[in-house]
Amino acid sequence: MNAKSLLLGGALVMMLVGGALATPRIAIAADAIAFTPGNPWAQTVGTISKSDHYHDYSVHATGGKTLKINLISRNPNLYFRVTPANSGDALVDTQSNGETSWSTQPATDTDYTVRVYAEPESLRSGDESKFALQVGMF
Q1: For 35-69, how does the pLDDT look when each residue is reduced to its tens digit (9 = 90+)?
Q2: Could you tell me the residue ranges of all domains in the chain?
Q3: pTM flag (> 0.85)
Q4: Are 40 and 137 in contact (CB under 8 A)?
Q5: Measured distance CA(105)–CA(31) in Å, rounded
């Protein structure tokens, strides 16, 4: 083997090792909220903790219908934020207004992400806060 082959071989090994050791960011998909036929409401129950301080849900809203979201919890430090799926701009963030309900009537079919969350510093280690997220479309 000549010096050029050794250099190229070494560079290839470094790229392979570097690629194998690189940890890609794994995007965690939002849980889809599904409606049963004939029922305008869906509910999911979840838990927030210091180590798992948010949970994302996806909701498909039908244009012309009202989408209503309710967050029910005994912990007053749980909030929700709603963003259109194609934007990071929040339509509502209940941490800023203290509300537990929100509604909108989109003109066209729209996908939303609803993030239920708590500020990690507001949670004690080992504690869990249960919640119910109710989503209505009527």
Answers
A1: 999 999 999 999 999 888 999 999 999 999 999 99
A2: 31-137
A3: no
A4: yes
A5: 22
